[in-house]
Amino acid sequence: MKIVMYKKTIAVLVFVLLISLISLSGRYFYRNAKYREIIAGIMIESPDLSKISNGVYDGSFDAIMNAADVSVTIHDHRITDIKINNHKTVKGQQAVRITDEVLSAQSLDVDTVTGATKSSLVILKAIENAIEKGYGNQ
Amino acid sequence: MEWLERQDFLMNTTVEQKIGGEDAAAAAQNAVNEISHLESLMSFFIDSGEVAQINRSAGRKAVCVGKDVMTVLGAAIQFAEISGGAFDITLAPVIDLWRRCGKQSVLPSSKEINTALSFCGYHNLQLDNENNTAFLRGDGCLIDLGAIGKGYAADCCIEIYKAMGIQSAFINLGGNVKTLGNNPDGRPWAIGIQHPDQRRGTFFGALDIQDQSVVTSGAYERYFETGGKKHHHIVDHKTGRPCDSDIKSVTVICQSSMQADCLSTAAFVLGLTDGMDLIGKTDNTEAVFYTENNEIYITRNLPGQFHLQKISRLDCYVCR
Predict the structure, then answer these.
(1) Interchain pair B310, A105: CB under 8 A
(2) A119: closest CA of chain B, how far (Å)
(3) How many domains does chain A have?
(4) Contact status of B18 with chain A (Cβ, < 8 Å)
(5) What is the domain extent for residue B85?
(6) Residues on chain A touching B305 (C-beta within 8 angstroms)
(7) What is the residue-level pLDDT of chain A in tens, covering all 138 positions?
(8) DSSP collapsed to 3 states, chain B
(9) How many domains, in total, are found in chain B?
């Protein structure tokens, strides 16, 4: 009896785990797809600053997987500062394979990340939204 | 020691600073001012800048430029020579063509590409170091400092920190990193290398960096899609098209950020074998290549500094 109960419990646990994994990954793929849809649809306009008076304008843009909050300072009809307040994102010549012990670490803590130049449509859109608030102030 | 962290948007990307010491806030502001200033001089898009003046005067007259632009142009020509033209700021007509087409998600025609290519070639850029002038010989020739400007800016910012007595800091201009001293744990700064295929912030490995720069070139951030294909932003000097590289990204490590910036671009265009050769010919310079086959190749002096994320399950090779 005990062994049957034990097997049943395991089966239920595995079932619950599988359902959670499926729904979590489903949620991730859905959010990712929505994010890509939003990014693909972003259009950035060149704003006319001649109509905006001096001040600091806050703008934000949320693309689900990535969001930005910025503060844009406008002085004499020019952008003088942009602050990001919150951003959620050989054929070898005798190549020798390196063994795991030499190289790898269980988990790495890094101070910052190098990569191809980051391009942020999300930040650009947040800046545009900030400037649009300047039109509202006229 | 107190640490200041600051993020700004400059040179069309996110600029991250982490600075330790009493004068950290002032140092960070000075760095921001410097980057803004350099951007105003060197941006392809700012009409009042020196680069724009050089471009407008192409085929007509030489333009007087300041020390910063003169230094960058001189270095740009040297790196063009060393890399056999794989890095070349005078590829601007082609780069601009693809940029304009990319905004409308259309492909340029072969005729447009060939026309643009005919204006390219670093021999068209003439520098006079005595009179501090720069002259583009042909009408239609252009320069774009996008592949060298951030590196130069990072070098300048580190000098600013040093001049203010700062001993520990890093600056990261959209992925172009340079460090000073040690991190808050008193150890070399740990710089992760972005995984080309995974979401931003995920890294496949990390480097221990002390007073060096780390710069990466890759096709995975800036591109447009049309006809079911991605067209990235790094142009091949031979074809006038986005280069068909056998690598997804290359990360270069050396003292000068300007050099790292140029060599990473060149190495990406050249691919694994020729890219490794180029790095091998350059003193005190190391690199990490991530290939299309998801393998990692590193230069021979790097093993002590490079750590692979075990979970990435990638094969890593050292070239002897």
Answers:
(1) yes
(2) 6
(3) 1
(4) yes
(5) 44-136
(6) none
(7) 677 788 889 999 999 999 999 998 888 888 878 877 777 677 766 667 888 889 898 888 777 666 677 888 888 887 777 777 654 334 434 565 554 444 444 456 899 999 999 877 777 788 888 888 887 765
(8) CCEEEEEEEECCEEEEEEEECCCHHHHHHHHHHHHHHHHHHHCCCCCCCHHHHHHHCCCCCCEECCHHHHHHHHHHHHHHHHCCCCCCHHHHHHHHHHHHHHHCCCCCCHHHHHHHHHCCCHHHEEEECCCCEEEECCCCCCCCCCCCHHHHHHHHHHHHHHHCCCCEEEEEECCEEEEECECCCCCEEEEEEECCCCCCCCEEEEEEECCCEEEEEECCCCEEEECCEEEECCECCCCCCECCCCEEEEEEEECCHHHHHHHHHHHHHHHHHHHHHHHHHCCCCEEEEEECCCEEEECCCCCCCEEEEHHHCCEEEEEC
(9) 2
